[in-house]
## 1
Amino acid sequence: MSNASIFIDKLALEKHPEGGWYKRTYQSSFVFSPFKQQAHKRYASTAIYYLLEGNDFSAFHRLKSDEMWHFYFGSPLKIYEIDESGNLKTRLLGNPMTDQSAEFQVTIPANRWFAADLIDKSSFSLIGCTVTPGFDFSDFELATSNLLSNQYPQHTHLIRQFTRS
């Protein structure tokens, strides 16, 4: 059994549509309607464990909420973020004590397209994700290669690498 499998079993993680494995670990007791056009209520905040292993990746997606990624264990992750103007920002989520360019936490603002993959493809990474207002799958949009490449043609190579369609 690989180290990733031990964590997947121990934490009872499930497959995530963007790639990787996850389990919700927290949802606030406070519930409200954060989006004016929707009556659907959201938890004020939610949190998950999230694990990527090997050649798997977190495909380009976006949320209607801010999402903070927290590094826990394993290989650092490279996070690719495309803002509304098409600017690409690449950040390293990992342990800054062992890699000075890494950050323990990376926050992705609402409505930004982003993806992630492992630095060490022979390893895995265990992280946490906190979403505020809380995560709901109805607020989750998985990118298609054509949609994102048409919008940001300067990043087509990266987009094709980190989309599943």
Note: Residues 3-161 form a domain with the Jelly Rolls fold (CATH 2.60.120.10).
## 2
Amino acid sequence: MVKANNINTALKRGVSEVIIESELRALMSTKTTLRLKMGFDPSTPDIHLGHVVGLRKLRQFQQLGHTVVLIVGDWTAQIGDPSGRSSVRKMLTADEVKQNAATYLNQFFKIVDKNKTEVRWQSEWFGSFDLSKVIELTSMFTVAQFLARDDFSKRFKEQKPIAITEFLYPLLQAYDSVAINSDVEFGGTDQKFNLLVGRDMQEMMGQKPQHCLLVPILVGTDGTNKMSKSLNNSIGVADSANNMYGKLMSINDDMICPYFELLTDISDEVLATTKAALKDNDVNPMNLKKDLAITVVRDMHGGSDAEKAALHFKNTVQSKGVPKDIPEFALSALKNIEGQRLSSLLVTCGLAKSAGEAKRLISQKAVTLDGSLIDENISINDIESGILKVGKRQIIRFKK
């Protein structure tokens, strides 16, 4: 039998709503092994700490003996989830989805136990779907039910387009629950409609309806919006230890406790003490952020890298110094970079992932050479030596 306090933690800590909590609590008190569903659309190649909130909850249930069924949405990703969207999302090709999925899975298993996870691809069941099956699914729900959904309702009232494919999205996600015989589906609070459609569809198709566990939406580093790569306020799972640590140190003070609650395993008692100390101004928020940053980075990268990241932050941001162990690049080896532009140099040196990102960083005045701002028009041939910084945390040294 599972201990009641473990069940309570699983159902309460970092959870917004459980449907239906009393029934799921009773089920978890038995020896029943539950099938836990979470689906991810590989619409981009990386995941961030906002996704980690749900993945940590899955791992917690794994530790209680339940089976995680991770669904790769290789079909729904091509449509795009309309949840919270104010416009139609561009459809992806099958090849784009596959490339993104490979990266996604590597990052998933930094959090979830791979040996206790069943990975399923939607193409296993949707690959053989015919028109009659699609019509059967669409007949189960009315247009009025879908237009009652907040994002659809808002767009309809504003006379903004809603593609028919977007109505299909909740149906396909719901059918995933039928295909794997889900007992519990996990998702953010913005996914509630989709999860409930799955619950209804299971019952219509003769299965026991799944329970739904909704986790909070993690606010991004801007302190206002949902963490999102497109809003440039995310902390990526694939970020280097130094960048992850630095971004965590940049969050607003009022986000410290939510981040501790959703991204770490500190006890509820310590969390309550931390909240009280912050409220009464009895603690320096900077020290709490350091504790948070090193804890999260340790989970993602290991203890050694976390300690190095903390030291790197102290030397480069707090002390405004330049550490000795920064990468060095010989300018003589970089003279033949295509275009001879600074944006190309940033990509070659690993300071930006793409020329587009590099140009954005330059335009935002985030790039300096020996402390002076430089623009895109500078030629690589004009650089003789010096320290190139992107933001406060990415630093390289040029030598002749």
Note: The radius of gyration is 24 Å.
